[in-house]
Structures are given as structure tokens and as C-alpha cells.
Amino acid sequence: MMRQPTASLEQAGQPNEAPPSAQARATSSEQRAPEEPPPSDSVPAPAEQPPTEAPATPPPPESSGKQRSTVVRGTRPAQSASEVTLGRDILDTAPRMNATDVLRVVPGLVASQHSGEGKAQQLFLRGFDALHGQDVELNVGGLPVNEVSHIHALGYADTNFIIPELVQSLEVTEGSYRAFQGDFAVAGTVRMDLGAREKGVEFAGTLGQFNQRRLVVTVRPGEDPGTFAAAELGESDGFGPQRGYGRATLLAQANLDLGHGLSARILGGSYVTRFDSPGVVREDDLEAGRRTFYSGSFPRQGGTVSRHQLLIGVDLPREGTARTRLEAFGILSDLRLRNNFTGYRVDDRGDGLEQTNDGSTLGLRAEHRRQVTIFDRPVALELGLGGRRDGIHQTQRRYRETDGTFFADEVDADLTQTDVWGYAEARLPLGRWAFRLGGRADALGVEVFDALAFRDPRYYDGQGYSRSAFGVHWGAKAGVEYALTDTWALFASYGDGFRSPQARSLAEGEQAPFVNVHGAELGTRKEGGRLSFQASVFGSQVADDFFFDHTVGTTVFTGQTLRTGISAALQARPLEGVTAALSATVANATVTKTDAKLPYFAPLVARADVGWDKPLPGIDSILSLGTGLTLIGPRPLPYDEYSHTVFLADVQAALRRGALALRLDVKNLLNTRWRDGEFVYSSRFDPTSQPSLVPARHFTAGSPRVASLTLEVHL
After folding, report:
1. According to its UniProt record, where is this protein mainly located (predicted)?
2. Which of 225, 346, 451, 630 sits between 20 and 30 A of 25, alpha carbons compared?
3. Contacts of 376 (CB under 8 A, 6+ apart)
């Protein structure tokens, strides 16, 4: 993960009509290949818009002696203050060994991995406790990650199949202000663009503490970073009891030129993992010496996951400014998860809970962008249509802690959930002003077969129950932009977002009750090759909100809630070889009626990623140093409790000479004893003690200092 100095887009040959947020993601070269036109997901800025200098993402290095080319790729143009693109140079500044490390670079986002290396991360963003994805829309290479009506959590988004070395950039759209944002885009949307860093074959082998072993093999046959195949094998005993895991991932993508202006993209992959989960530690057990900080609770916790996915996309021949993309995708996923967060509080046989979720997803998507003239003014149009059908079989059963056998069936259901959507967005420039107006409609149909409905041996054994529901969500999007200078602008944005319901909660004939969010933002952004900056004040109102405590399976309906806050992010390349990304978000989340704080959200999140590359001519090598710093302020917990402050420092040092590179990664350099998850609820872990409903504090331990050494071979 070596970095090289960057060049501005003008130096790379970017046309003047490139959008302000266009990024150069390229390999540096002495010989430049012919320039590529912008891709179909890049809308040219209207001619009247002042030209802007866009930040450039520095290229990854190639081994000496190779011929390298420059490829310029555009991103969706930023049309709100909080949209940001984080390139490969920023991702390479700090250790990125898994998906959690990748997500932590997103401004204001907290990614917690408190239940083992195979379970989806718990996410916090902009005052929302998004659980495992219910308020953050995640997309990888065009493939949706969030799973609808999941047994464990709404919008369950397991990103552990991602190979960090393949993430070329993150396109972050915080808030719900753009028409392309769909289900679960309540606090924001994160899109990951995939690509291989270097032409040829790359081997990366890692050995680390706690018996960590990891091997990544990447093949990029040509100049296009988007055509690659990669495999990852990883396993570890974990930093404490019940934290071991093993996983295997395959990802491959091909960009194909079919001739006559027609191009295609194929992305496929498979992923499987088996992992253990430590459970929680009661604070009073730790203080009394009955448990250690890194103790596990019960031995059967953990699970297995697999995911298989395929996307086929076609870009139709361009006609003037018009460009059209068609995509079809399919995903097969399954999860078996066992956990016990409460011990013997509910049942003397134990509160062990096993959940399974087997899902299949089929989807179609069409996007069309063009520039038209209305009243002698250029208007950029973006249109989209799509549909997604999810079939799910899910179960939930209670098991005995003594032998793991089941004693109660709680859920056995088959679900079919279909979402059909359409959206439109138009942008009209008027001198230094630009106006954006759009809308989105999502129609949701749900069918449920509940095999356990009416099953009560005291009366009769029913044969299950079928029911269906339907609903439509209408959302408006709007924005105003004023260009103060060629590189500095003010923004005002508004947008309606939504979260689809849990299908099993719907009654026969019910109008599907979406959770609606109304969001607004005022902010500013400055674009530049050396310095990019953005700051905003935001607010989100949720009409009929709830929070779900997944540790005890309790849903609390709160009515109307309000999130407010401020955020700022900066990307800087002040000196040759230096890259920095800094961000901070302060948020507040309250119940409107009582002004009480919502539990678990993160009021303060700050992140700094800084890297430095230094050529060493004496030994014909490049030295790279980098760090990632995370600060999370105290989070409100139930019963007026607060979590501990978290400060983490990760560092890396790498030396590259020709085809060989050696990298040292140290996570949690200060060896801080930090709590990755903190909760307040009642529990009973000693079955001989008296039952009690008195709430107590619990936590899951974060990782101690972990060092690993990686050898890279580039052929």
C-alpha cells in the first residue's frame, strides 16, 4: 500500500467540462495512454458553471521498468455540501485489514465489530444508531449490501466479503438529499468502487499476533484497474476467548468493450466464513474479579455466513450528451447466528438464541443521463428505474446452554418482498446559481407465510397463516447552489428518505408503513488539488421512529425524533508525498415530545488519516509512513448512563523496493483498553442466583494492540 505524489486533473488532461467532484484515479507514468472519455455515471457540468479545480487522488505505484498509463475516471458530481469521494491514496494511509477499517474513514461514521469477525458491523452516523445497516445504504461495485426484513436487524449490511485492497474509492453521500438514494438511505449512502492497484500479479502474505494469517492474491491482466480477479484467505485465533474466525473471499470483475460504442461490466464473487462471538461482560463481574476484561460468556456463540453474487451491466452507445446504463444483479446469502446476551434471565434453560436467514435477491436497474435545453438553458437530467425481488426463509429458535438442543421455536417464516422504484432529478444553472429538483417513488409489496401462526397446543395446531401488504413511499429532493468563486460554493439541500418495514410485522392488507425521514442541510465546500474542504449544519426529522435493542430483542417506539448536528471534512495534500484526511461530526438525537436523548447514538466522532511517502534514492526504495486516529465521545445509554470515550491510534510503516514491499501494521498502538460496544439492560449469567430485572452495564471488549507483518510481491 504505497502512495505517490498527486497531480491535478488539469495536469492529467481532464477536460474542462468535468464535474467538480471528478477524481483522477490513475497510475503514474512517463508515457501516457490516450485519454478516456468520462464514464456514463459522470454528468458534464453545464457550460455556464464556473470551472472548478477538482482534487486529485494520487496514484498507486508501479514497479520500476513497467510501462504505465493514465486513466481518468469521473464520479457522480457532488451537489450537496456533505458529498465526498475518498480515494485510494487516503485508504492507503492507515492499516486496512478488513471492512471495518475501510468504513472508519467515512466522515462521522462509527463501525463497531462487537460480535466477532463474521457478523455485520453496527453503524452509527449523523445521530442515528443504524444498528447493522437500517439507516445507512451500502453499495459495493453496484451490488446492494443491505438485506430487507432480515431476521437479525432491518437493512442488515454484511460487508465482510470486501477485500480492502480492491476498494479504489468511497463515494459518500451523507443525508438523504439525492434522488438515486433508496431504501435505508436515512443517514446516508456509501458506495465503494472496486479496482486493482497495479498491473500484473500481486501476492500479499500477512502474519500477525494471535496466530493471524492472511493471504491475498490479485491479478490485473491489463491497463484497466477495473478488470481484475482477487482471492483472500484469512484466519486467526482472536485476541481472547471465542474470537477465532476463518474466511475465504473471491471477487472478479471485467470491463469489456463490445464495439460500436457498447461496453459491459461483469462483477462476481463468493464469500464464506465461520466465526466465534465472545458475548458480553457485566461491569460488576469485572469489578468483582469474577470476569476479566477479555472474557467470553458462553461457548456456543458465533455463526456461519456465505454470500454469492453476480452483476452484469451494459452501457449503451452514447448519443450526444445522453448515456444509458442497464444492470441486472443476483445475490444468494445465508446466515446462521447464535448468541446469548442475557444468560438465564428469561429461561432457566438459558436464553441462547439461534437465528437463520436464507435470502435470494434478483434486481434490475436502468439509469439515463443527458443534457437538454429548456428556455435556452442547459439542464442536466438524471432518470432511474429499477426493481428488486427478495425471497427469504428465516427461523428463530431458543436452545439450552447445557447441550445446545432446541426447546422453543419462535419464528419460521417465508417472505417475498418486492420493491419497484423510479426517480428523476434535474439541475438548472443560472449564472452563479444552480437549482436542483427531483423526486423518487418506491412501491413495496410484501407476502408473508408464517408457519407458526396460531400454533398453540392448548387450543389447536394451526397450519400457518399467509398475509400480504402494499405501500408506496413518495420522496422529494431539492437543492440550491451558489458559486462564490471558481472553487468555493454554498449549498442548501432537502430530501425525504425512508426505511422499509420488517415484513413479519405487517398485517393482512396493511398499507406498508415506511419509516419516513425529512432531512435538510446548509453548508459549503471548496474544491482543490491541494486542499478540499466541506462543512455543513444538518437536521433530520423522523415521523414514527423506534430504536431496537438487539441484545434483548426489544423494540421501543418513540414517535417523532429529531437529529441535528454539524460536520466538517478536509482532504489535504500540502507537500509532495503527504496525504491527509480529517473529519469531525457533532450530533444530537432527541425524542421531540419529551426532548429525551435517544440511546446509543454517537454525539462526537472525529477521524484523522495521514500518510507520508519518501523516496530513498540511495537504496532505490520508497518509505511510507501513515496513521489513522479515531475519537468517539461518550454515547448516551439507557437509564441515563453514558459510554466511555474511545481513542484509537493505528500506524503503519512500509518499504518498497522494486517488486518487493514489506509493511508493518500496528492497530491500537497505545494498547488502550476500550469497549467496542456498551449496553444497559438486565441479565443473569449465574443460574443459581436470584432472577432480577435491575438493569446493569455490559460491554464487549475492543481489540488490544495487534501487530502484523505483510510481505508483498508484485510480478
Report:
1. membrane
2. 630
3. none
> What average pLDDT does the structure give for the chain?
87
SS3 133: coil
Closest CA to 691 of 295, 301, 320, 343: 343
pLDDT at 35 over 80: no
Angstrom distance (rounded) from CA 46 to CA 23 = 18
**Backbone phi, psi, residue 294, to 5°:** -105, 20
SS3 assignment, position 673: coil
What is the C-alpha to C-alpha distance for residues 185 and 217, in angstroms, rounded to an integer? 34
- Cβ atoms of 277 and 323 closer than 8 Å: no
Nearest residue to 609 via CA among 172, 95, 246: 95
Higher pLDDT, 559 or 696: 696
Cα(102)–Cα(57) distance, integer angstroms: 16
Spatial contact of 616 and 599, defined as CB atoms under 8 Å apart: no
- Rounded CA separation 353/424 (Å): 44
**Nearest CA to 353 among 396, 302, 415?**
396
- Please state, in angstroms and rounded to a whole number, the distance separating the CA atoms of residues 703 and 675: 9
The β-bridge relationship of strands 136-140 and 188-194 is parallel
Q: Which three cell numbers stand for residue 4?
A: 505517490
* Bridge partner residues of 584 (DSSP): 568, 606
122: which strand partners? Answer: 112
For the chain, the distance separating the N- and C-terminal CA atoms, rounded to the nearest angstrom, is: 15
Among candidate residues 33, 31, 30, the one with its CA nearest the CA of residue 72: 33
The residue assigned the cell 453548508 is: 523
Using a 10 angstrom Cβ sphere, with 0-12 exposed, 13-18 middle and 19 or more buried, the burial of residue 557 is exposed
Cβ-contact 51, 17 below 8 angstroms: no
Distances (CA, A) of 465 to 155, 349, 389, 410, 628: 25, 29, 21, 15, 52
Rounded mean pLDDT, 219-233:
96
Q: How far apart, in Å, are the Cα atoms of 310 and each of 273, 306, 316, 332?
A: 19, 14, 20, 9
Q: How many residues does the chain have?
A: 715
Q: Quote the CA–CA distance of 398 and 375 in Å, as a whole number.
A: 66
Cell of 119: 457478523
DSSP helix, strand, coil percent of the chain (3-state; round to 5): 5, 55, 40
Q: Residue 236: count other Cβ atoms within 10 Å of its Cβ.
A: 21
